[in-house]
Specification:
The complex is a heterodimer of chains A (114) and B (112). Helices cover 0% and strands 49% of the residues of chain A. Chain A is mostly beta strands. In chain A, strands 2, 4, 5, 6, 9, 10 and 11 form a 7-stranded mixed beta sheet that branches. A 4-stranded antiparallel beta sheet of chain A has the order 1-3-8-7, with no helix packed on it. The mean pLDDT of chain A is 93. Chain B has 112 residues and is an all-beta fold. Chain B is built from no helices and 11 strands. In chain B, a hairpin with a 4-residue loop joins strand 7 and strand 8. The model of chain B has no long low-confidence stretch (mean pLDDT 93). Classes of the chains: A mainly beta (114), B mainly beta (112). Chains A and B meet through strand 5, strand 9 and strand 10 of A and strand 4, strand 5, strand 9 and strand 10 of B.
């Protein structure tokens, strides 16, 4: 009974490279959320997606960041031309069709920029 | 005003103490409420849902006050293992869809 699966667990990139973070929601969940957390800070909402649709991207930086949740396959958070400030833990969460249900989180991806 | 407000703490309490956290929310149309726990460098984990009538799970009691728009979490007989950050979460309609908002979290440190 797999929970939310994120990979990779750790990702190291050099400045200017691209980072791709993947998230497979729990079985039966069609809502996916991405959050960013800097050390010693709270969770910051980034984007909320349903299959093939971005519902709310109000927390996404306007440049370099994009997210998708295709009909088949995991949700992808893509960061282009990474900078040191992108170093953080990125958490994905999913919830069932009715988002009055609680979210369940993956283990997160720790992104480090050299 | 923030959509969900919590005192970040830290709350330093001795083992065995009772501690309470409050969380206020601004959207009166909010529909569901949760408490999560986050350990250092780990993912948030659901602690409990919060129901209008109040609910209890072992040493943990959650309350909702819709009139005053706040929820609370009470921890009795604190254990060292309760040390963590407690996140308040509010779901409500916003702009035609369900919006989930996390509080900044309240840090609890239980001291031997």
């Amino acid at each position: 009974n797999a929970g939310v699966m994120q990979n990779p667990r750790h990702l190291v990139r050099r400045r200017g490279q691209e980072a791709r973070l993947r998230c497979s929601p729990m079985k039966g969940h069609s809502h996916v959320y991405w959050y960013r957390q800097l050390p010693e800070e709270g969770l910051k909402f980034m984007v909320y997606l349903q299959k093939e649709n971005i519902i709310d991207e109000s927390g996404m930086p306007k440049e370099r960041f994009s997210a998708e949740f295709p009909k088949e396959g995991p949700s992808i958070l893509r960061i282009q031309q990474v900078v040191r400030g992108d170093s953080a833990a990125y958490f994905c969460a999913s919830s069932p069709v009715s988002s009055n249900q609680p979210q369940h989180f993956g283990d997160g991806t720790r992104l480090s920029i050299l | 005003r923030k959509e969900v407000e919590q005192d970040p703490g830290p709350f330093n309490v001795p083992e065995g103490a009772t501690v309470a956290f409050n969380c206020t929310y601004s959207n009166s149309a909010s529909q569901s409420f949760f408490w999560y726990r986050q350990d250092c460098r780990k993912e948030p984990k659901l602690l409990m849902s919060v129901y209008s009538s109040g609910n209890e799970d072992g040493r943990f009691t959650a309350q909702l006050n819709r009139a005053s728009q706040y929820i609370s979490l009470l921890i009795r007989d604190s254990k060292l293992s309760d040390s963590a950050t407690y996140l308040c979460v509010v779901n409500g309609k916003s702009g035609g869809y369900q919006k989930v908002t996390f509080g900044i979290g309240t840090k609890l440190q239980v001291i031997p």
